[in-house]
Amino acid sequence: MKHVDVAVIAATLWLLASMVLDILTPKSITVFMIAAALAPPFLIGIGIHFAREYFKAKRRSYQPPQWDERFRN
């Protein structure tokens, strides 16, 4: 379900950015303007994805501390 939420948010942000660009520019939106509208949500999504994977891997690789033999009774 999280992936659907991210896709809906990205699509909403893209549509909002394209509408703002359409209002600000008198001529139609070019390929470069579409790329400029898509870049921020795309980069933020990539950052969130890699941060989530990094912390998931870090959590998986955590080893609880082992007791040293000299501290046993």
Structural features:
single chain; 73 residues; mainly alpha; rod-shaped
What is the CA-atom radius of gyration, in angstroms? 22 Å
DSSP E strands, number: 0
Q: Given the helix and strand composition, which structural class is it? A: mainly alpha
Low-confidence runs (pLDDT<50, min 5 residues)?
Answer: none
- Domains, number: 1
Mean pLDDT: 77
Transmembrane segments: 32-51
Keywords: Membrane, Transmembrane, Transmembrane helix
Layout of helices and strands, plus pairs?
Layout: H1 2-24, H2 31-60
Helix pairs in contact: 1-2
Quick rundown:
This protein has 73 residues and is mainly α. It has helices at residues 2-24, 31-60.
Please, could you describe this protein's structure?
Keywords: Membrane, Transmembrane, Transmembrane helix. The chain contains two helices and no strands. It is rod-shaped, with a radius of gyration of 22 Å. By secondary structure, it is mainly α.
